[in-house]
Design goal:
Layout lengths: L4 E7 L14 E3 L2 E2 H16 L5 E4 L5 H6 L5 E3 L7 H14 L4 E6 L7 H14 L2 E6 L2 E9 H7 L9 H9 L3 E5 L10 H11 L1
Parallel strand pairs: 1-4, 1-6, 4-5, 7-9
Antiparallel strand pairs: 2-3, 6-8, 7-8
């Protein structure tokens, strides 16, 4: 039987280094960062036959953001000031409520990732049912697929930390799938990152 995978896009942060809502910054023609991420994942979830991605919003809930996410299930993180871990916990609770076998965590700002990379990640997980993550810049990281049993551990993380510690523990225990994904290193944190991305695209 095909595993039940819940896909969650983390987009709740204040993006303080960007001096504004980076999720609505245009990254491809008229497409905003968040639209680009949603459209890519819509193709991925359709191809694999799993539910559409869920979006976690927090600091930026403008009319524009709500319009972009209107066709997707939204989770509102009222504790976004507590950092990334607060979104990860919300994602984990949602995955548990759906009785998911696994949860794919995606960051909205990893702008260079394409459908093919997400599909490789999901295929690697389905192949041997291990926690599966991207590997780039000589390190493990997101996007990553966590098993149901990882989620309780994820829920114990605090502060502005993500889930890297769990991935590293699995790596140590030889219970981690890694997928080479150099494109995952490109994220938009500052206006300079966005300018660089737009320059390289042309």
């Amino acid at each position: 039987m095909k595993p039940k995978i819940v896909t969650v896009i983390l987009a709740a942060g204040a993006s303080s280094r960007f001096n504004g809502a980076k999720i609505v910054a245009k990254v491809q023609g008229e497409l905003s960062l968040l639209e680009h991420c949603l459209q890519t994942l819509d193709r991925v979830t359709t191809a694999v036959g799993i539910a559409p991605a869920v979006v976690i919003l927090g600091a930026h809930q403008t009319d524009e953001v709500l319009a972009i996410t209107a066709d997707h299930h939204r989770l509102i993180n009222d504790n976004w000031q507590l950092g990334l871990s607060s979104s990860v916990k919300l994602a984990g609770r949602y995955a548990q409520s759906q009785q998911a076998d696994a949860m794919l965590i995606v960051l909205a700002d990893q702008v260079a990732l394409q459908e093919t990379e997400y599909l490789q990640l999901i295929e690697a997980y389905i192949r041997n049912n291990l926690t599966t993550c991207a590997f780039y810049l000589q390190n493990v990281g997101v996007p990553a697929i966590f098993l149901a049993e990882d989620i309780n551990v994820l829920m114990s993380i605090d502060g502005d930390k993500g889930a890297k510690s769990i991935l590293k523990q699995h790596d140590k225990n030889n219970s981690l799938n890694v997928v080479q994904m150099e494109q995952a290193q490109f994220d938009i944190d500052t206006p300079a990152d966005l300018a660089r991305w737009l320059d390289n695209k042309d």
